[in-house]
Amino acid sequence: MTTLEYGTLVSVIVPVYNGAEYVGQALESALCQTYPHLEVLAIDDGSSDGSLGVLELYAAKDSRVRVLRQLNGGVASARNRCIEEARGELIATLDADDLWQPTKIERQVRRLLEAGDATGFVYCWWAWIDGRSAILDRSPRWMVEGEAFEALVQINFTGNASVPLFRKRCVVEAGGYDPTLAAAGAGGCEDWELVLRIASRYDVAVVPEILLGYRRLPGSMSTACNTMWRSKELVIQQMQQLRPDIESRVWKISNRQFALYLAGMSFWSGRMFDAFRWAFRSGWSLSLAVAPHVLRMLLSRGRSKQAVETMLPNENIHPEDIPEPLLPYDSIYSFPPR
Questions:
Q1: In the chain, where does DSSP find H-type helix?
Q2: How many CB atoms lie within 10 A of CB 53?
Q3: Cα separation, 163 vs 157, whole angstroms
Q4: Is the distance from CB of 145 to CB of 121 less than 8 angstroms?
Q5: By the 8 A CB rule, do 144 and 204 touch?
């Protein structure tokens, strides 16, 4: 086992499929990191737009960028290809439409060094941004650390694939990203599946700051609720086989929490019938807990709004410029005692 030190190489993995509109901004946010010891592996996953040209342009400008190509095999396959090629002992994935704050990698590397060899990955907080990079909302202030598998089964507090910084050996031990989900027509939870496998063996740690913008676009995978639910079911089946010692209540909580998450995605997408349908599946206690906040959001629609903050690839957002979460779920929900 190699003990990490500051200066350890970080391999940044950027999978791209028809992402020409935003991938340049994503690459800028990776190359503008204050942590200088990194390489960027950008892989074109069989795009039919101009994605490959954008990647090659950045590779020509910056020697830290390496471009890979493959026939379309899905995001899990693309990430795994890059992991095989990665030279760094640390891995960070960045989706082609997301943005990192300039200090993200540096803050996470330092936290991983503090946490020690028993920690498999470090996560952080994030903000949701729209197509113009304007901030829509922010994540809850999750502070789960240490042995966190049961908590992570209940709620994916890591949020999305652009959040964690991993030890590469932990990713390899876990088998990388699972391409069978997409092959079964149930893609969407690949990033959750990986962090669960790692958390079943290692501790986790957090940098309690918003360090990235997670782009929320109509038609994205996270809004394909039925597919996401099937993906969740397959992941939970795998985790139950991996950890048969976990009490049944944890898996039931996971189902209710995920239904509530899909209710939120439906609400944001304007599909109110689906929002109520998924909220019903989450159970009355969770639905009633979030109802006052949802009502406040409904009443505030149409009112004049102040100018919102916009994320840029090379500028840090000050905490005071980020609004309070529309749904402060970290204060609404407490993880049951183990």
A1: 23-31, 51-61, 75-85, 104-115, 149-154, 168-173, 180-183, 190-199, 225-242, 248-268, 272-282, 284-300, 329-332
A2: 11
A3: 10
A4: no
A5: yes
> Which range among 173-182, 214-223, 277-286 shows the weakest confidence by mean pLDDT?
214-223
The DSSP result for 139-158, as a single string, is -------BS-HHHHHH--TT
The backbone torsions φ and ψ at residue 272, rounded to the nearest 5 degrees and listed phi first, read: -65, -35
**pTM check: above 0.70:** yes
106: left (phi over 0), alpha (psi -120 to 50) or beta: alpha
Say whether pLDDT at 159 is over 50.
yes
What length does the chain have? 338
Ranked by mean pLDDT, the top range of 24-28, 133-137, 302-306 is 24-28
Q: Tokens 């149930």 label which residue?
A: 186
In this prediction, residue 5 has a pLDDT band, given cuts at 50, 70 and 90, of: confident
Domain 10-246 is of which CATH architecture? Alpha-Beta Complex (3.90)
The residue extents of the domains of the chain are 10-246
For the residues of 226-286, what is the DSSP string, one character each? HHHHHHHHHHHHHHHHH-TTS-HHHHHHHHHHHHHHHHHHHHHTT-HHHHHHHHHHH-HHH
| CA pair distance 214, 237, nearest whole angstrom | 28
CA distance 206 to 331: 17
What DSSP element (H or E) covers 50? none
* 52-77 mean pLDDT: 97
